[in-house]
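hiii so um. not sure if this is the right channel but i have a protein structure encoded as tokens and i wanna go backwards to a sequence. like what aa goes where. can anyone help
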């Protein structure tokens, strides 16, 4: 697992931020047409084409949000389906707007309405074939009995938020050694989260570990970062924090190994020992 490629949220954001850029470019001729009509004083036609351009831009924005949600859905082994079908809504906007524009070119003659409806339907089909529609089912992965998708996702989301907070605090610490050690700790934490996503049955065995351990590590790291940011800490405090990091890293490594190998371990004793040391060192 340690050799697995780490997910980079920045690359994810860039990839799905770019996807669908064509939807913003294709309506540009309509904007030009609207400007020309405005210069000619054709107010009604300007309103129609201008409204169509605005509708296309709105659809592109909604679709891009849908792409990002689907990207996150596809990335995770256990995921909720998007609650709002953003891509489908965007496809409907594009379909209706395309049909209205085609009908406008026919001066809104009733006889041309069926053809315009057909063209709108083709636009919807084209979007669906090229971009796809929204996923509608939750991804359960290797979900076991007694554990729901919601429980697993809530635990994983909460753990990731704590790890992100530790990362944010780490960046404020200027000590290179502490930075490197905290980086190893957060990497190990994400490996544990990944292992739970691979096998949700591990959640019940790691629940207290994720809550208590990550909470304690977050408090320690944030407290140190806030107290010593930009300041030279006394040697005694540096030594205490170093010992705390030793305990955190060692305990985390041991418990990750047990999580992967032992089906019946309990972390209560290890967590209590670690908390006792953190309190004794005066960092929590």
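sure thing!! here u go:
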């Amino acid at each position: 697992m340690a050799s697995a490629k780490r997910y980079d949220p920045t690359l994810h954001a860039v990839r799905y931020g770019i996807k669908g850029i064509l939807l913003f470019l294709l309506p540009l001729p309509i904007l030009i047409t609207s400007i020309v009509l405005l210069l000619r004083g054709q107010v009604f036609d300007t309103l129609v084409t201008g409204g169509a351009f605005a509708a296309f831009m709105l659809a592109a924005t909604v679709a891009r949000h849908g792409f990002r949600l689907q990207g996150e859905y596809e990335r995770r082994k256990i995921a909720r389906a998007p609650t709002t079908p953003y891509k489908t809504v965007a496809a409907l906007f594009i379909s209706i707007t395309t049909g209205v524009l085609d009908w406008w070119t026919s001066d809104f003659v009733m006889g041309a309405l069926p053809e315009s409806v057909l063209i709108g339907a083709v636009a919807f089909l084209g979007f669906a074939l090229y971009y796809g529609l929204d996923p509608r089912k939750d991804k359960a992965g290797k979900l076991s009995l007694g554990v729901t998708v919601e429980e697993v996702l809530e635990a994983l989301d909460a753990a990731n938020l704590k790890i992100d907070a530790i990362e944010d605090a780490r960046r404020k610490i200027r000590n290179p050694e502490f930075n490197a050690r905290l980086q190893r700790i957060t990497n190990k934490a994400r490996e544990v989260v990944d292992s739970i996503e691979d096998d949700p049955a591990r959640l019940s065995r790691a629940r207290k570990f994720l809550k208590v351990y990550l909470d304690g590590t977050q408090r320690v790291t944030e407290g140190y970062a806030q107290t010593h940011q930009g300041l030279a800490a006394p040697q005694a405090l540096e030594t205490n924090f170093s010992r705390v990091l030793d305990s955190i890293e060692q305990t985390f490594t041991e418990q990750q190994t047990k999580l992967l190998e032992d089906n019946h371990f309990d972390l209560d004793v290890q967590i209590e020992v670690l908390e006792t040391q953190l309190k004794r060192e005066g960092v929590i």
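oh and The chain has a mean pLDDT of 81.
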